[in-house]
Amino acid sequence: MTSFPELYILRHGETAWNAEGRMQGALNSALTPAGRLQAERQATILASCNLEGFDILTSPQGRAFETAAIALARQVTHLRTDDRLREIGVGEWAGKIRRELPGADAFHDGPDGALELYENAPGGEGFAALEQRCTEFLASLTQPSVLVTHGITSRMLRSIITGAGVAGLDGIGGGQGIVFHLKNRMQKRLE
């Protein structure tokens, strides 16, 4: 069984497009005031964690990088980006309002959106490719790390680590303004 280093995983704070129910994927939208408060809440959570020796990695997408800057400003002096932490590609549905997409009304719209929409987006990345990207990323980690990423990518990383796999994406939990701590293949939600 694969072992993984200790990780703290954060999703970016709420963006204008999150509030509107838009698919973002590779596109970007600014953090809302609520999103900046969520990043501050993550900073408060992380202030009680000893991050000495931890690598700090963030998605290069603006919403994640801004969240990382706010959430980690009290403890680190620099952020390193890794493109493998970017959000799942949603192809032709990037920028579209979720509830207006074909078949959207058939799916449960949870804290990270209806997961099936991310799998079925025309020209999108899909879960198999995202799982491969995240598996390769996790295999490259050599030390405990803080990862700042996105809703679906966070779910996939945590599903791989806990052994839940793609089938466990829906049940792994999500949300903004929180931190997930993963150690010894176990996940703990910090609020």
From TrEMBL:
Q: Which residues bind substrate?
A: 11-18, 63
Q: Known InterPro entries for this protein?
A: His_Pase_superF_clade-1, His_PPase_superfam, PG/BPGM_mutase_AS, PGM_Phosphatase
One GO cellular component from the entry? cytoplasm
Give the Pfam families listed for this entry. Answer: His_Phos_1
Annotated GO MF terms: phosphatase activity
Organism domain of life: Bacteria
List the SUPFAM superfamilies.
Answer: Phosphoglycerate mutase-like
User: What is the protein name for this chain?
Assistant: Putative phosphoglycerate mutase
